[in-house]
Every structure is written in structure tokens, then in C-alpha cells.
Amino acid sequence: MILLALTLLVAAAQPAESTPFQEGDAAPEATEAPEADTTVEGVPSLPTYDVQPVGALPEGLRQLVMESRDQSLAQRMDAISATMLDRPHHDDPLGEGMGSDLDPLVRYDMYDCLTFVEEVLALSLAGDPEHAAEVRLDIRYAGSPSYTHRRHFMELQWLPDNLASGWIRDTTADYGDVVQMERTVDEKLWKNWAGRANFAHSDEELPVGPMRLNVLPLEQAIEAAPTLRPGSIIAAVREDRSYKPIWITHVGFVFDGPTESTRTLRHATRMKKSRRVRDHDLVWYLKLLSTYKNWKVAGIAVFEPIDASPRVEQTEG
Fold it and tell me: Is residue 142 part of a domain?
């Protein structure tokens, strides 16, 4: 599998715009309050590259992954993701190097919100950075790395599959009374969805069936924000609309804030004044979500990665 991944990495092209993520309120796009800027200063950064860093793990990042192996999972995730701060946001920067999406399987010069989450998880959960590719592929694909095996849709594919595989667990209910969203997606809904043309699947290849999600309403989420455990993944969940097969439009990580009573959201944001990997005060961001009018935010879902390093760590002999 690793050999196949390395073979496919050599091809790169403009990304296929096949992402269901839509951060912001669409019209007008969300803007930032300068006083809410909590970008971390003095964090390590990746080297400047003369060529696109497609495929190979940068040596500075490899060293950091090795040095953080004895830390807790949340600490490893914090340190590894901090090296990616200020990297540009780009919609759907990854693909399979062939077929419907010619973008590479991995790159370190740009991210969207999901590829940022996937890469941090891969590097943090692998027993050794040499095996991060195996973790990444297992998180991102249901089978061999191909466009139709990719887990494009959070509610129907990415979340249920990774919950079942044991990479993450749903902790939303730890922070308050949740509302369970539930609905069934069928072929008719896909055909009528305005975003259908962005995906190169045949009608038969699109996922169908029930999707369920525990959601912490936004007001409760704001109240509970200081108690969210560092290393958690949070997903912004929009209100259900009968003509859309998606609810989640953004994901990011929660880490400790500058004080004991604050938390930071680290995410690859497409807000027009950022469009890069940024740190924002979590409460500020949740309050921003409450201002969306065109497609209101119902709340957040929270998931914790499970430290599975013994499963993937290589042993001698």
C-alpha cells in the first residue's frame, strides 16, 4: 500500500472542486474581528521550499514527530499542528494522483479543513512517522486509494467509518444535552442536490441510507467551550435542509487557550481575511457561527481521537 501511495504522489494538478465544506455564511462571507485574533506566536514552522513539498515528509516535521512520541496524544497533536500554522487554505488540495482527481495523496504546503485534520491525525496516531501513510489511508479511504473509495461525505462516510474503526469516539454528550439529528439520504436527493455536479461519482456510487448525528446546540456549546478536552475535533453542524445531503460544513481541533479557562480552535479556515491555518478563540468562533443567517448553524459535534499507536507501531524482530 505504501509503495502504491508513493507511486501516485508524483502527479499533481489543480484540485477537483469536490468538497462539501462551506465555511462562512456564503453571502456575505464571514469576516473576522481583529480583537479575536489569537494566532500563536513563536511556534516552529516548516522550512521554506524551493519546490512544492508534495509527497515527502519534511525533515523538520519528521524530527518533531519523533521528539513528541512520549507526550500525550493531545500534546502531540498540538505540537504537530502548530508547525502548519499560516499554511494557505486551498479547497480540496488532495486526490489520488490519477483518475478523477489528479492531486497528490499528501502534501504539506496547503490544506483544507478536512485534509488538515487528517494529516495531523495521521502523524499523531502513527507509531512511527514512516507509517503515517498507512494511518492516513485508513482514515481517508474505505479500501484502496481511489476517488470512489474516498470518504467524501462526513455524515454518511467519514464519521461513521472512523467511529467503527476505532480512530475516534463521539464525546458530544459529555458537554450537555444533545439533539440527535437523523434523516435518510436516497438517490432522488442526490440527483436534485445543487452540489451534485461537483462530484465525479456515478449515481450508483454515491452513498445512501440513514445519517445520524449527536449535536450540542450552539448556546450550550458556547457555555461548555472552556471545558472541551484538548485534542478534540469539533464539527460545525448546520440546520437540516430537506434538499441537502450534508449537515457538517467545517471541522477543526480544540487545544488549550492562553489561559486555563479558554480554548483555541485551530483550523484551516476559508474566511476571506484568513484563508490559511489559523488559531482563533473558540468562544469567539462559536459566537460567530450564531450570526449566520443564510444557512443557520444548529450546533457542534465533538469527537476525540483514540491513541492507537500500539496498533500501528512497528516492532523489531
Answer: yes
Query: Is residue 314 included in any domain, yes or no?
Result: no
> 230: how many CB neighbours lie within 10 A of its CB?
18
- Kindly tell me the burial class for residue 273, based on how many C-beta atoms sit within 10 Å of its own C-beta (0-12, 13-18, 19 or more): middle
Q: What CATH number does residue 122 fall under?
A: 2.30.260.10
Q: Is 306 helix (H, G, I), strand (E, B) or coil?
A: coil
Q: Collapsing DSSP states into helix, strand and coil, what is residue 280? A: strand
State how far the Cα of 254 lies from the Cα of 279, in Å rounded to an integer.
Answer: 9
User: pTM for this one?
Assistant: 0.85
Domain that holds residue 199: 2-18+28-307
DSSP of 161-214: HHHHHTSEEE-GGGGS--EEEEEEE-HHHHHH-GGGGG----GGGS--EEEEEE
Structurally, the chain folds into a number of domains equal to: 1
Determine the 3-state secondary structure of 82 from DSSP: helix
pLDDT attached to residue 108:
93
